[in-house]
Design brief:
Helices cover 48% and strands 16% of the residues. The chain has helices at 25-35, 71-104, 134-145, 152-166, 168-187; strands spanning 16-18, 21-23, 46-49, 53-59, 107-114, 117-122.
Length: 191
Amino acid sequence: MSGERGIRSGRGERGSRSNGVERSPEEITGWIVGRLPENWFEQAPTVTIDHDEILIIGRLPAPHLGDESDSVAKAAAEVGRITRFREETREERMTIAREGQHHFGKAVSWGAETGETKQVFTNLSIPVMTRLRQPERTVLDTLVDSGVARSRSDALAWCVKLVSANADEWLVKLRNAMESVESIRREGPLS
């Protein structure tokens, strides 16, 4: 993590409690969009919320190199555009992150994308404890022994990424079902 640490609506969408008040993903996203300078991004940023963190990723204008540029030059220009944005906005992003953390009780992380390039500048790396039986440990150990992962922890993260990449449709259905349950719960007598 760099010094940019501070406190979407999309994957992992979940509200937040601040001072005992439940904050909806829509409220969090609205606050963020309202708080950001209008000239930073081409469109409203993607705001992803989970139990621990709010991740803001904005789309920057693509650099113009001309039609004759090769893919290596375009990729380098995109990285340069993102790096410039990161450096030029650092202080203000840190201020917004502190305000957001205070307001929502979650860390705020940042990233940017342009063209085909996406970079996340800061975000949390949270340890997750789990108990695995021998067959599951064998899978992780095989990934380590083959050089796919450096450790069981890396192997487990690799497995989660693999499942996520191949289960997007199922996960979207599951998230939609969870949103429906939450909507019904808010309409109920205890809301």
